[in-house]
Amino acid sequence: MKKLLILAALLPAATSAQDKNLAYEITAGLTTEVGQRLAGTEQEAKARAWATQKLKALGFQNIRIEPFEMKGWIRGEEKAEITAPYTHKIAITALGHSGATPTNGLTGTVVVYPTYADFLAAPEAAINGKIVYVGHAMGRTQDGSSYGVFGRVRREGPAVAAKRGAAAFLIRSIGTDDHRTPHTGVTSWPDGVTPLAAAALSNPDADNLERIARTSSSPIKMSLTLTPKFTGPQQSGNVLAELPGTDPAAGIVLVACHLDSWDLGTGAVDDAAGCGIVTDAALSVAAKGKHRRTIRVLWAGSEEVGVFGGEAYFKAHKDEPHALAAESDFGADRIWQVNFRLPEPAAPLRARISEALAAQGIGTGRGVAGGGADVGQMIAAGTPAIDLNQDGTRYFDLHHTADDTLDKVDPASLRQNVKAWSSMLDLVANAPEPLIFTDGQ
Protein backbone atom coordinates (compact mmCIF):
# COMPACT_ATOMS: atom_id res chain seq x y z
CA MET A 1 0.00 0.00 0.00
CA LYS A 2 2.82 2.38 0.87
CA LYS A 3 4.40 1.83 -2.56
CA LEU A 4 1.08 2.54 -4.27
CA LEU A 5 0.67 5.79 -2.35
CA ILE A 6 4.16 6.90 -3.34
CA LEU A 7 3.45 6.05 -6.98
CA ALA A 8 0.15 7.96 -6.88
CA ALA A 9 1.93 11.01 -5.48
CA LEU A 10 4.40 10.93 -8.34
CA LEU A 11 1.85 10.54 -11.13
CA PRO A 12 0.49 14.13 -11.20
CA ALA A 13 3.98 15.61 -11.52
CA ALA A 14 4.92 13.17 -14.27
CA THR A 15 1.72 13.88 -16.15
CA SER A 16 2.21 17.63 -15.77
CA ALA A 17 5.72 17.46 -17.21
CA GLN A 18 4.53 15.34 -20.11
CA ASP A 19 1.67 17.70 -20.88
CA LYS A 20 3.73 20.89 -20.66
CA ASN A 21 3.51 22.88 -23.88
CA LEU A 22 5.86 25.84 -23.59
CA ALA A 23 5.19 26.98 -27.15
CA TYR A 24 1.50 27.33 -26.36
CA GLU A 25 2.28 28.94 -22.99
CA ILE A 26 4.35 31.64 -24.73
CA THR A 27 1.71 32.18 -27.41
CA ALA A 28 -1.05 32.47 -24.83
CA GLY A 29 0.99 34.72 -22.54
CA LEU A 30 2.05 37.17 -25.24
CA THR A 31 -1.43 37.48 -26.72
CA THR A 32 -3.18 37.68 -23.35
CA GLU A 33 -0.82 39.77 -21.26
CA VAL A 34 0.24 42.13 -24.06
CA GLY A 35 -2.17 41.62 -26.96
CA GLN A 36 -1.93 43.83 -30.05
CA ARG A 37 1.65 44.88 -30.76
CA LEU A 38 1.71 47.43 -33.56
CA ALA A 39 5.29 48.39 -34.41
CA GLY A 40 6.56 51.61 -32.89
CA THR A 41 3.81 51.85 -30.28
CA GLU A 42 3.70 51.52 -26.51
CA GLN A 43 2.21 48.03 -26.96
CA GLU A 44 5.27 46.85 -28.87
CA ALA A 45 7.47 48.28 -26.11
CA LYS A 46 5.43 46.33 -23.55
CA ALA A 47 5.99 43.21 -25.65
CA ARG A 48 9.76 43.70 -25.54
CA ALA A 49 9.66 44.04 -21.76
CA TRP A 50 7.46 40.94 -21.52
CA ALA A 51 9.82 39.00 -23.78
CA THR A 52 12.98 39.83 -21.82
CA GLN A 53 11.32 38.84 -18.56
CA LYS A 54 10.04 35.58 -20.04
CA LEU A 55 13.34 34.61 -21.65
CA LYS A 56 15.21 35.31 -18.42
CA ALA A 57 12.80 33.15 -16.45
CA LEU A 58 13.32 30.34 -18.96
CA GLY A 59 17.08 30.36 -18.40
CA PHE A 60 18.41 32.07 -21.51
CA GLN A 61 21.63 34.09 -21.30
CA ASN A 62 22.89 37.31 -22.90
CA ILE A 63 19.35 38.66 -23.09
CA ARG A 64 19.18 42.17 -24.48
CA ILE A 65 17.04 44.62 -26.38
CA GLU A 66 18.71 46.18 -29.40
CA PRO A 67 16.70 49.35 -30.18
CA PHE A 68 16.30 51.07 -33.52
CA GLU A 69 14.15 53.82 -34.98
CA MET A 70 11.40 53.34 -37.53
CA LYS A 71 8.63 55.49 -38.97
CA GLY A 72 5.48 55.42 -36.88
CA TRP A 73 1.90 55.06 -38.12
CA ILE A 74 -1.37 54.52 -36.28
CA ARG A 75 -4.86 53.63 -37.42
CA GLY A 76 -7.79 56.04 -37.18
CA GLU A 77 -11.47 55.98 -38.09
CA GLU A 78 -12.43 53.54 -40.85
CA LYS A 79 -15.80 53.83 -42.52
CA ALA A 80 -17.15 53.21 -46.02
CA GLU A 81 -20.55 52.94 -47.66
CA ILE A 82 -21.79 52.41 -51.20
CA THR A 83 -24.37 55.14 -51.76
CA ALA A 84 -25.41 54.41 -55.38
CA PRO A 85 -26.86 52.65 -57.26
CA TYR A 86 -27.66 50.76 -54.05
CA THR A 87 -26.74 51.38 -50.42
CA HIS A 88 -24.40 49.06 -48.55
CA LYS A 89 -22.20 49.59 -45.51
CA ILE A 90 -18.78 48.07 -46.08
CA ALA A 91 -16.38 46.23 -43.78
CA ILE A 92 -13.09 47.95 -44.49
CA THR A 93 -9.67 48.51 -42.93
CA ALA A 94 -6.81 50.84 -43.81
CA LEU A 95 -3.64 49.38 -45.22
CA GLY A 96 -0.55 49.99 -43.13
CA HIS A 97 0.97 53.40 -43.97
CA SER A 98 -2.22 54.47 -45.72
CA GLY A 99 -2.75 58.16 -46.18
CA ALA A 100 -5.95 59.81 -44.95
CA THR A 101 -9.10 61.19 -46.46
CA PRO A 102 -10.26 64.62 -45.36
CA THR A 103 -11.49 64.47 -41.75
CA ASN A 104 -15.10 64.50 -42.93
CA GLY A 105 -14.37 61.85 -45.56
CA LEU A 106 -14.76 61.96 -49.31
CA THR A 107 -17.46 60.88 -51.73
CA GLY A 108 -16.69 59.83 -55.25
CA THR A 109 -17.24 57.54 -58.19
CA VAL A 110 -15.78 54.05 -57.95
CA VAL A 111 -14.06 52.43 -60.92
CA VAL A 112 -13.80 48.65 -60.60
CA TYR A 113 -10.94 46.57 -62.05
CA PRO A 114 -11.17 42.79 -61.57
CA THR A 115 -7.38 42.36 -61.68
CA TYR A 116 -4.25 44.39 -61.13
CA ALA A 117 -3.36 43.95 -64.79
CA ASP A 118 -6.70 45.53 -65.74
CA PHE A 119 -5.90 48.49 -63.53
CA LEU A 120 -2.42 48.95 -65.00
CA ALA A 121 -3.85 48.81 -68.52
CA ALA A 122 -6.56 51.43 -67.84
CA PRO A 123 -6.03 54.94 -69.26
CA GLU A 124 -5.11 57.62 -66.74
CA ALA A 125 -8.23 59.57 -67.61
CA ALA A 126 -10.36 56.71 -66.29
CA ILE A 127 -8.55 56.81 -62.94
CA ASN A 128 -7.91 60.48 -62.27
CA GLY A 129 -10.11 61.76 -59.43
CA LYS A 130 -11.80 58.37 -58.93
CA ILE A 131 -11.96 55.91 -56.06
CA VAL A 132 -10.15 52.96 -57.61
CA TYR A 133 -10.99 49.37 -56.62
CA VAL A 134 -8.82 46.41 -57.69
CA GLY A 135 -9.68 42.74 -57.19
CA HIS A 136 -7.69 39.54 -57.66
CA ALA A 137 -8.16 35.77 -57.69
CA MET A 138 -6.07 34.61 -54.73
CA GLY A 139 -6.80 31.02 -53.75
CA ARG A 140 -5.70 28.57 -51.08
CA THR A 141 -2.31 26.91 -51.46
CA GLN A 142 -0.43 24.71 -49.01
CA ASP A 143 2.80 26.60 -49.52
CA GLY A 144 1.29 30.11 -49.56
CA SER A 145 2.68 30.84 -53.02
CA SER A 146 -0.43 32.76 -54.10
CA TYR A 147 0.38 35.50 -51.57
CA GLY A 148 3.53 36.54 -53.38
CA VAL A 149 1.67 36.85 -56.67
CA PHE A 150 -1.44 38.68 -55.53
CA GLY A 151 0.14 40.64 -52.70
CA ARG A 152 1.54 42.98 -55.33
CA VAL A 153 -1.81 44.80 -55.55
CA ARG A 154 -1.44 45.82 -51.89
CA ARG A 155 2.28 46.46 -51.79
CA GLU A 156 2.61 48.71 -54.85
CA GLY A 157 -0.92 49.41 -56.09
CA PRO A 158 -1.67 52.45 -53.89
CA ALA A 159 1.50 54.25 -54.99
CA VAL A 160 0.75 53.58 -58.65
CA ALA A 161 -2.79 54.90 -58.14
CA ALA A 162 -1.47 58.02 -56.42
CA LYS A 163 0.86 58.73 -59.34
CA ARG A 164 -2.10 58.40 -61.71
CA GLY A 165 -4.27 60.87 -59.81
CA ALA A 166 -6.69 58.56 -58.00
CA ALA A 167 -8.68 60.00 -55.08
CA ALA A 168 -8.38 56.74 -53.08
CA PHE A 169 -7.38 53.13 -53.64
CA LEU A 170 -9.31 50.06 -52.47
CA ILE A 171 -8.50 46.38 -52.85
CA ARG A 172 -10.08 43.03 -52.21
CA SER A 173 -8.45 41.73 -49.02
CA ILE A 174 -5.36 39.63 -49.61
CA GLY A 175 -6.96 36.63 -47.95
CA THR A 176 -8.83 33.38 -48.58
CA ASP A 177 -11.65 33.60 -46.05
CA ASP A 178 -15.31 34.39 -46.67
CA HIS A 179 -15.86 36.41 -43.49
CA ARG A 180 -16.46 40.13 -43.14
CA THR A 181 -13.06 40.58 -41.55
CA PRO A 182 -10.87 42.70 -43.84
CA HIS A 183 -7.13 42.06 -44.02
CA THR A 184 -4.64 44.86 -43.43
CA GLY A 185 -0.97 44.78 -44.45
CA VAL A 186 1.64 47.36 -45.27
CA THR A 187 1.94 49.34 -48.47
CA SER A 188 4.86 51.51 -49.55
CA TRP A 189 5.33 54.96 -50.99
CA PRO A 190 8.37 55.81 -53.13
CA ASP A 191 10.07 59.11 -52.49
CA GLY A 192 8.05 61.96 -53.91
CA VAL A 193 4.70 60.14 -53.85
CA THR A 194 2.10 61.61 -51.47
CA PRO A 195 0.23 58.81 -49.67
CA LEU A 196 -3.46 58.58 -50.50
CA ALA A 197 -6.21 56.79 -48.58
CA ALA A 198 -5.75 53.05 -49.20
CA ALA A 199 -7.82 50.26 -47.71
CA ALA A 200 -8.95 46.64 -48.06
CA LEU A 201 -12.54 45.45 -48.28
CA SER A 202 -13.60 42.18 -46.70
CA ASN A 203 -14.01 39.47 -49.31
CA PRO A 204 -17.83 39.35 -49.11
CA ASP A 205 -17.98 43.12 -49.55
CA ALA A 206 -15.57 42.87 -52.47
CA ASP A 207 -17.81 40.21 -54.00
CA ASN A 208 -20.78 42.52 -53.65
CA LEU A 209 -18.99 45.52 -55.16
CA GLU A 210 -17.82 43.48 -58.15
CA ARG A 211 -21.33 42.06 -58.61
CA ILE A 212 -22.81 45.56 -58.69
CA ALA A 213 -20.24 46.60 -61.27
CA ARG A 214 -21.16 43.63 -63.48
CA THR A 215 -24.93 43.93 -63.23
CA SER A 216 -25.62 47.67 -63.05
CA SER A 217 -25.09 50.23 -65.77
CA SER A 218 -25.29 53.10 -63.29
CA PRO A 219 -22.16 54.69 -61.78
CA ILE A 220 -21.12 53.37 -58.37
CA LYS A 221 -20.80 56.04 -55.70
CA MET A 222 -19.09 55.61 -52.36
CA SER A 223 -18.45 57.62 -49.23
CA LEU A 224 -15.12 56.86 -47.54
CA THR A 225 -13.51 58.01 -44.30
CA LEU A 226 -10.02 56.94 -43.26
CA THR A 227 -8.08 58.96 -40.68
CA PRO A 228 -4.79 57.19 -39.96
CA LYS A 229 -1.71 59.28 -39.37
CA PHE A 230 2.06 59.07 -39.47
CA THR A 231 3.59 59.73 -36.06
CA GLY A 232 7.20 60.44 -37.03
CA PRO A 233 10.26 58.48 -35.87
CA GLN A 234 9.43 55.95 -33.16
CA GLN A 235 11.53 53.44 -31.25
CA SER A 236 11.26 49.75 -31.94
CA GLY A 237 13.73 47.00 -31.15
CA ASN A 238 14.84 43.40 -31.39
CA VAL A 239 14.99 41.05 -28.42
CA LEU A 240 17.91 38.60 -28.47
CA ALA A 241 18.71 35.72 -26.12
CA GLU A 242 21.23 32.89 -26.26
CA LEU A 243 21.98 29.37 -25.16
CA PRO A 244 25.80 29.37 -25.37
CA GLY A 245 27.53 26.46 -27.07
CA THR A 246 30.81 24.78 -26.21
CA ASP A 247 32.57 25.87 -29.41
CA PRO A 248 32.09 29.58 -30.20
CA ALA A 249 34.15 29.24 -33.38
CA ALA A 250 31.60 26.79 -34.81
CA GLY A 251 29.15 29.62 -35.39
CA ILE A 252 25.74 30.82 -34.25
CA VAL A 253 22.51 29.01 -35.02
CA LEU A 254 19.98 31.82 -35.43
CA VAL A 255 16.30 31.00 -34.95
CA ALA A 256 13.85 33.84 -35.45
CA CYS A 257 10.26 34.99 -35.16
CA HIS A 258 8.76 38.47 -35.03
CA LEU A 259 7.44 40.08 -31.90
CA ASP A 260 5.28 42.82 -33.41
CA SER A 261 1.81 42.26 -34.85
CA TRP A 262 -0.91 44.17 -36.60
CA ASP A 263 -3.40 45.98 -34.41
CA LEU A 264 -6.63 44.25 -35.45
CA GLY A 265 -6.24 40.90 -33.69
CA THR A 266 -3.75 39.79 -31.04
CA GLY A 267 -1.16 38.32 -33.39
CA ALA A 268 -1.45 34.74 -32.17
CA VAL A 269 -0.87 33.08 -35.52
CA ASP A 270 1.27 35.94 -36.85
CA ASP A 271 3.62 35.57 -35.06
CA ALA A 272 3.35 34.80 -31.34
CA ALA A 273 3.13 31.12 -32.26
CA GLY A 274 6.43 31.36 -34.13
CA CYS A 275 8.12 32.83 -31.05
CA GLY A 276 6.71 30.03 -28.96
CA ILE A 277 7.89 27.36 -31.41
CA VAL A 278 11.52 28.47 -31.82
CA THR A 279 11.95 29.23 -28.13
CA ASP A 280 10.53 25.90 -26.98
CA ALA A 281 12.65 24.03 -29.51
CA ALA A 282 15.85 25.84 -28.49
CA LEU A 283 15.27 24.94 -24.86
CA SER A 284 14.53 21.33 -25.81
CA VAL A 285 18.01 21.07 -27.33
CA ALA A 286 19.65 22.70 -24.30
CA ALA A 287 17.81 20.31 -21.97
CA LYS A 288 19.70 17.39 -23.52
CA GLY A 289 22.99 18.76 -22.24
CA LYS A 290 25.88 20.49 -23.95
CA HIS A 291 25.59 21.55 -27.58
CA ARG A 292 28.46 22.62 -29.79
CA ARG A 293 27.04 25.75 -31.42
CA THR A 294 25.45 28.72 -29.68
CA ILE A 295 21.71 28.94 -30.32
CA ARG A 296 20.53 32.53 -30.59
CA VAL A 297 16.82 33.36 -30.47
CA LEU A 298 15.73 36.55 -32.27
CA TRP A 299 12.30 38.02 -31.51
CA ALA A 300 12.38 40.71 -34.17
CA GLY A 301 10.57 44.03 -34.00
CA SER A 302 8.76 45.93 -36.75
CA GLU A 303 8.53 43.08 -39.23
CA GLU A 304 4.99 43.83 -40.35
CA VAL A 305 5.62 47.41 -41.39
CA GLY A 306 8.85 46.93 -43.33
CA VAL A 307 11.12 44.21 -41.85
CA PHE A 308 13.00 46.91 -39.98
CA GLY A 309 14.02 44.47 -37.24
CA GLY A 310 15.58 42.08 -39.74
CA GLU A 311 17.47 44.97 -41.33
CA ALA A 312 18.71 46.17 -37.93
CA TYR A 313 19.86 42.67 -36.98
CA PHE A 314 21.80 42.32 -40.22
CA LYS A 315 23.54 45.65 -39.77
CA ALA A 316 24.50 44.82 -36.19
CA HIS A 317 25.52 41.17 -36.60
CA LYS A 318 26.45 40.53 -40.23
CA ASP A 319 30.14 40.12 -39.36
CA GLU A 320 29.54 37.46 -36.72
CA PRO A 321 29.93 33.81 -37.74
CA HIS A 322 26.49 32.35 -38.41
CA ALA A 323 26.22 28.64 -39.10
CA LEU A 324 22.50 28.70 -39.89
CA ALA A 325 19.45 30.96 -40.01
CA ALA A 326 15.86 29.73 -39.78
CA GLU A 327 12.55 31.39 -38.98
CA SER A 328 9.02 30.41 -37.94
CA ASP A 329 6.59 32.95 -39.39
CA PHE A 330 3.86 31.13 -41.27
CA GLY A 331 1.27 30.43 -38.61
CA ALA A 332 0.68 27.60 -36.19
CA ASP A 333 -0.33 24.65 -38.36
CA ARG A 334 1.64 21.47 -38.92
CA ILE A 335 5.01 21.25 -40.66
CA TRP A 336 4.81 19.14 -43.81
CA GLN A 337 8.09 19.74 -45.65
CA VAL A 338 11.71 20.74 -45.14
CA ASN A 339 13.95 22.58 -47.62
CA PHE A 340 17.68 23.25 -47.37
CA ARG A 341 20.33 25.74 -48.40
CA LEU A 342 23.51 24.17 -47.05
CA PRO A 343 27.10 24.06 -48.29
CA GLU A 344 28.18 20.90 -50.08
CA PRO A 345 30.29 19.56 -47.18
CA ALA A 346 27.12 19.55 -45.06
CA ALA A 347 25.39 16.96 -47.27
CA PRO A 348 25.62 14.32 -44.53
CA LEU A 349 23.89 16.70 -42.11
CA ARG A 350 21.14 17.29 -44.65
CA ALA A 351 20.65 13.52 -44.91
CA ARG A 352 20.46 13.11 -41.14
CA ILE A 353 17.89 15.87 -40.81
CA SER A 354 15.80 14.51 -43.69
CA GLU A 355 15.83 11.06 -42.12
CA ALA A 356 14.85 12.37 -38.68
CA LEU A 357 12.00 14.43 -40.09
CA ALA A 358 10.81 11.66 -42.40
CA ALA A 359 10.24 9.57 -39.30
CA GLN A 360 7.84 12.33 -38.20
CA GLY A 361 5.97 12.31 -41.52
CA ILE A 362 7.74 15.38 -42.93
CA GLY A 363 9.05 15.14 -46.48
CA THR A 364 12.08 16.81 -48.05
CA GLY A 365 11.23 19.28 -50.80
CA ARG A 366 13.12 20.10 -53.96
CA GLY A 367 13.18 23.84 -53.35
CA VAL A 368 15.96 25.94 -51.89
CA ALA A 369 15.44 27.35 -48.40
CA GLY A 370 14.98 31.11 -48.31
CA GLY A 371 14.32 31.67 -44.63
CA GLY A 372 11.81 34.17 -43.31
CA ALA A 373 11.72 37.93 -43.68
CA ASP A 374 13.76 38.68 -40.56
CA VAL A 375 16.66 36.41 -41.53
CA GLY A 376 16.44 37.11 -45.25
CA GLN A 377 19.34 39.53 -45.39
CA MET A 378 21.58 37.15 -43.45
CA ILE A 379 20.79 34.36 -45.90
CA ALA A 380 21.27 36.61 -48.91
CA ALA A 381 24.72 37.43 -47.52
CA GLY A 382 25.67 33.75 -47.41
CA THR A 383 24.32 32.23 -44.19
CA PRO A 384 23.10 28.63 -44.64
CA ALA A 385 19.35 28.13 -44.18
CA ILE A 386 16.74 25.50 -43.43
CA ASP A 387 13.00 26.03 -43.93
CA LEU A 388 10.51 23.96 -41.95
CA ASN A 389 7.43 24.61 -44.06
CA GLN A 390 4.09 24.81 -42.29
CA ASP A 391 0.77 24.00 -43.90
CA GLY A 392 -0.55 27.33 -45.15
CA THR A 393 -3.93 26.13 -46.40
CA ARG A 394 -5.87 28.19 -43.88
CA TYR A 395 -3.21 30.74 -42.98
CA PHE A 396 -4.61 33.47 -45.20
CA ASP A 397 -8.04 33.06 -43.65
CA LEU A 398 -6.59 34.71 -40.55
CA HIS A 399 -3.56 36.67 -41.75
CA HIS A 400 -3.61 40.38 -40.75
CA THR A 401 -7.22 40.25 -39.52
CA ALA A 402 -9.15 40.73 -36.30
CA ASP A 403 -9.58 36.93 -36.33
CA ASP A 404 -5.90 36.34 -35.55
CA THR A 405 -6.51 35.30 -31.96
CA LEU A 406 -5.43 32.50 -29.63
CA ASP A 407 -8.47 30.30 -30.21
CA LYS A 408 -7.21 29.64 -33.76
CA VAL A 409 -4.03 27.98 -32.44
CA ASP A 410 -4.08 24.21 -32.05
CA PRO A 411 -1.83 23.07 -29.17
CA ALA A 412 -1.23 19.70 -30.84
CA SER A 413 0.02 21.38 -33.99
CA LEU A 414 2.40 23.50 -31.92
CA ARG A 415 3.77 20.31 -30.34
CA GLN A 416 4.36 18.86 -33.81
CA ASN A 417 6.22 22.05 -34.84
CA VAL A 418 8.39 21.98 -31.73
CA LYS A 419 9.26 18.32 -32.23
CA ALA A 420 10.40 18.98 -35.80
CA TRP A 421 12.31 22.14 -34.89
CA SER A 422 13.96 20.38 -31.93
CA SER A 423 15.16 17.52 -34.14
CA MET A 424 16.57 19.92 -36.71
CA LEU A 425 18.20 22.23 -34.16
CA ASP A 426 19.77 19.39 -32.19
CA LEU A 427 21.41 18.01 -35.32
CA VAL A 428 22.60 21.42 -36.54
CA ALA A 429 23.86 22.60 -33.15
CA ASN A 430 25.98 19.47 -32.73
CA ALA A 431 26.95 18.76 -36.34
CA PRO A 432 30.68 18.16 -36.93
CA GLU A 433 30.38 19.38 -40.53
CA PRO A 434 31.50 22.95 -41.34
CA LEU A 435 28.51 25.19 -42.07
CA ILE A 436 29.97 27.91 -44.22
CA PHE A 437 29.68 28.65 -47.91
CA THR A 438 32.97 29.03 -49.75
CA ASP A 439 33.45 31.23 -52.81
CA GLY A 440 31.76 29.76 -55.84
CA GLN A 441 29.16 27.73 -53.95
End-to-end separation: 67 Å
Mean pLDDT: 94
| CATH class identity of the largest domain | Alpha Beta
Q: Tally the helices: what do you get?
A: 15
- The shape is elongated
- Radius of gyration, CA atoms, in whole angstroms: 24 Å
How many strands appear in the DSSP assignment?
Answer: 16
The CATH topology name of the largest domain reads Aminopeptidase
Q: Main β-sheet: number of strands, strand sense, barrel status? A: 8 strands, mixed
Helix content: 25-40%
User: How many structural domains?
Assistant: 2
Describe the structure.
The structure is a single chain. The protein is an alpha/beta fold. The protein folds into 2 domains: 22-69 and 233-430, 3-Layer(aba) Sandwich (Aminopeptidase), CATH 3.40.630.10; 77-229, Glucose Oxidase, domain 1, CATH 3.50.30. The protein is 35% helix and 25% strand. It contains 15 helices and 16 strands. The strands form 3 sheets. The protein has an 8-stranded mixed beta sheet with strand order 3-2-9-5-6-7-8-4, sandwiched between helices. Helix 2 packs across helix 10 (268-286), helix 10 packs across helix 15 and helix 12 runs antiparallel to helix 15 (411-430). Mean pLDDT is 94; it is low at 1-18.
